[in-house]
C-alpha cells in the first residue's frame, strides 16, 4: 500500500468532510491515442491492446491502485501567534506563549476574529506538506471513461452542492449549484459540468477527454 498526494479545491474538501464526495475524475495526461487500423492504443511509451486497453491503463494510474491512500492537499495557513506581555507578582513583564503556533484550513471557514493576534497568509494547496495533511482517502475502485459519460448518480458522488428551494420545475423541488455562473441547475450532471469547467476551462469539457474515475472512502 502506497500513499499519493492529490489536490482539492476548498468546496470539494468541504464535500469530503461532509461525506458528500466519494469519487473524483482526473484528466488522463497525455490522452490515449486509439489506432483502430493497428489494433493498439498508444499512451506514453506503452502499446496497449485495443480490446482491453482500459484495464491495462488502470494498472498504470498515477494516483495509485485499489487499496492505496490519497493524502489530500488543501489551502492552508501557518498561524503565528504574537506573544502577549503580562506581569508576574514581581512586576517583571514576560511573554505569554500560552497560544502555540498551529495550522488552519480554509475549508473550515473559521471565525478568525476568535484567534488571538493571528498573523498568516493562505497558501495554495500545492505547497501543503504531508505533515500538515488531515484527510486521507483509500482508493476503492478505478476505471477509465469519457468525461461526458458521467451518470447522474456519479455526478452526485462528485460532491456537487444541492439546494432545495421548493421549485416545482425540478423533481421534489431539488436544485443543484451551477459553479460557473453561481446560479442553479436542475441536473446533477449539469452541475458537475459547470464544476469541471470552472476548474479546467470550457474547452476541457467540450473536448470530452478520457479521465481516471477514482472512487474512495475516507479513513
Explain the overall architecture.
This protein has helices spanning 10-17, 53-58, 152-157, 188-200, 202-206; strands at residues 3-7, 23-27, 33-35, 40-43, 46-49, 69-73, 76-79, 84-87, 93-96, 102-105, 136-146, 162-164, 174-178, 183-185, 210-218. It is an alpha+beta fold. The protein folds into 2 domains: 3-74 and 130-218, Hypothetical protein (Archaeosine Trna-guanine Transglycosylase, Chain: A, domain 4, Roll), CATH 2.30.130.30; 76-123, no CATH class. A 5-stranded mixed beta sheet has the order 1-6-11-15-2. A hairpin with a 5-residue loop joins strand 8 and strand 9 (93-96). The longest helix is centred in the C-terminal third of the chain and has 13 residues, at 188-200. The two termini are 14 Å apart.
SSE string, helices as H and strands as E: EHEEEEHEEEEEEHEEEHHE
State mean pLDDT (0 to 100 scale).
Answer: 87
Output the strand order for the largest sheet.
1-6-11-15-2
Radius of gyration over all CA atoms, rounded: 23 Å
Query: For the report, how would you describe the main beta sheet?
Result: 5 strands, mixed
At the first level of CATH, what is the class of the largest domain?
Mainly Beta
**How many distinct folded domains?**
2
CATH topological fold name of the largest domain: Archaeosine Trna-guanine Transglycosylase, Chain: A, domain 4
> What's the architecture of the largest domain, going by CATH?
Roll
Furnish the topology, listing elements before pairings:
Elements: E1 3-7, H1 10-17, E2 23-27, E3 33-35, E4 40-43, E5 46-49, H2 53-58, E6 69-73, E7 76-79, E8 84-87, E9 93-96, E10 102-105, E11 136-146, H3 152-157, E12 162-164, E13 174-178, E14 183-185, H4 188-200, H5 202-206, E15 210-218
Parallel strand pairs: 1-6
Antiparallel strand pairs: 2-15, 3-4, 4-5, 6-11, 7-10, 8-9, 11-15, 12-13, 13-14
